[in-house]
Amino acid sequence: MITLDDFETFPDFPVPGVLFYDISPILADPELFRDACAQLTPPEAVDVVVGVDARGFIFAPVIAQSLNVGMAMVRKKGKLPGELLEADATIEYGASELVLDPRGVAGQRVLVIDDVLATGGTALAVADMLERAGAASVQFSFLMEIEALKGRERLAGHGVLSAVQVPATD
Q1: Partner of 114 for a Cys bridge, out of 3, 34, 52, 91, CB 3.0 to 4.6 A?
Q2: Tens digits of per-residue pLDDT, 43-86?
């Protein structure tokens, strides 16, 4: 089972005031990586797994294969061709334009995989695109949740699973 001790931290990265939790130690250890994937896999059945650019891409295909379902990608704008859905995501230290190819989403139970739940801006934008694409349901699995930033509150109505929580401090 992964814990906060399995991450390496870097203060003031990528901007001052942010404590960055590096997942590299988890990726370097096959047992920790297996544990992380197991912790990200929900007990409920899903029809498709969506990986969020970029670190969600690391875990999503492994989980999709273990569940014997397909995978889709949410990318940064300009990284996918074709007719796409778009959404703007406001995150704790910036903004991002995201896109999704909506094919194969309508009527599906979708599991979204990403590395960190912070403010919930990215997740909310992803949920919006998936709902516009006709997803039957959208749930999320995050490797880490930073509780002080209250991202879970912004995802009310969606299942949220976090492998590791960074507790809020007063």
Answers
A1: 52
A2: 999 999 999 999 999 999 999 999 999 999 999 999 999 999 99
- The catalytically annotated residue of 8, 31, 34, 55 is 55
DSSP 44: S
User: Is residue 163 a contact partner of residue 142, using CB atoms and an 8 Å limit?
Assistant: yes
CATH number attached to the domain at 44-166 = 3.40.50.2020
Closest among 15, 26, 9 to 93, alpha carbons compared: 15
DSSP per-residue string spanning 91-129? ETTEEEEEEE--TTTTT-EEEEEEEEESSSHHHHHHHHH
Catalytic pick from 92, 109, 131, 147? 92
Question: Residue 51: which H helix or E strand, with range?
Answer: strand 48-52
Distance CA 149, CA 36 (A): 22
In single-letter form, the type of residue at position 6 comes to D
Segments making up each domain of the chain, as ranges: 44-166
Say whether 147 is catalytic: no
12: phi then psi, degrees, rounded to nearest 5: 60, 35
Token pair, residue 96, equals 């991002």
55 belongs to the catalytic site: yes
Alpha-carbon gap, residue 16 to 9, rounded angstroms: 14
SS3 70: strand
Q: CA–CA separation, 18 vs 10, rounded Å?
A: 8
